[in-house]
Amino acid sequence: MSLIRKIVLYPFAILLNFITSIRNLFFDLGIFKEYTFDYFSIGVGNISMGGTGKSVLVSYLADILNDKYMINILSRGYGRKSKGFQIANKSSTPNYLGDEPFMFYKQNQKVRVGVCNRRREGIQRLIKSINKNSKNIFILDDVYQHRWVKPSIMILLTEYSKPYFKDYLFPSGNLRESRNSARRADVIIVTKCPSELPIEERKKIISKLNIDLNQKVFFTKIKYDEHIFGKGKKLPLNILKKVPFILVTGIADNTLLVTELKMRGFVFKIINYKDHFTYTKKNINKITSFSDGQLILTTEKDYYKLQHHMNSDLLFYIKINIHFSQEDSKLFKSYILKKGKLN
Predict the structure, then answer these.
(1) How many CB atoms lie within 10 A of CB 326?
(2) What is the distance between the alpha carbons of residues 42 and 63, in angstroms, rounded to a whole number?
(3) Helix axes 99-107, 300-309, angle to 10 degrees
(4) To the nearest 10°, the Cα dihedral for 139, 316, 274, 95?
(5) What is the largest CA-CA distance in the chain?
(6) Which pTM value belongs to this model?
(7) What value does the CA radius of gyration of the chain take, rounded to a whole number of Å?
(8) Contact 298, 317 (CB under 8 A)
(9) Which of 27, 81, 265, 318 is spaced 20 to 30 A from 255 at the CA atom?
């Protein structure tokens, strides 16, 4: 982040801080009313712009809880072409739901996925349509700034290489609201950590997060699946040492993925698009021409958008997972179940 940006745009950051602080104060005082509901809910969000790993955590939560509970996911549906409240069904497309909600639905079609710009309305509509005989849990994606809805547990994500305590308010930096707003979180997860993170460094990070006694902190890393997945088939990831391929990404930051693939000794070219990119026929033609008959590797959410345009046997995706240590995995799930009285 350039020093010029910090200095020149600082007055605008002060203005944003004033606006967001007054808004938060009104919620804290009860002048603006937060909507609570009778079902256990988990909010996932961040105070930074860009990819901290929210969608990967949402998928993880749905996966560890869906054995005994009916999972209902509510998202904004960023970039979708539809309006109002929509719920995923077999005829849904990425354009209809948004790329990440569509991915949640494709990962597990037993999970109910709804999208709505107005989160309070979305929750109310989802609740109306649930099977009340089931044990329902609601996961609210990217909801940290949507204070009109108050989940039972709020989880805040911050990236190891770009923690919020080193960042500044937009437009001087990339924070949506002040660092102090992290105190609203019940759980803070430091994401995308290196494989080895010494205890002493963890303690330093926790100290800088400036948490209170009631907040829990977990450290996670990204783990890539050892297979790639295509139309009705999967192949070992290491086959890419022998098979020429290109990488196509439309995510906030593809650095970790590119680094991982290069560390494995793979040689490839890259086409990179912005996050939530809507692929057009022109883009598809460019990708097809660039690949020149080679395998096309992409991310899971990009796969479904590309597949909609190019029904190719050469199109594959690599699955990205969030990884807790074995001990933290148990502690995290236990904390969630205890808070929801779900044991």
Answers:
(1) 8
(2) 14
(3) 100
(4) -60
(5) 62
(6) 0.94
(7) 21
(8) yes
(9) 81
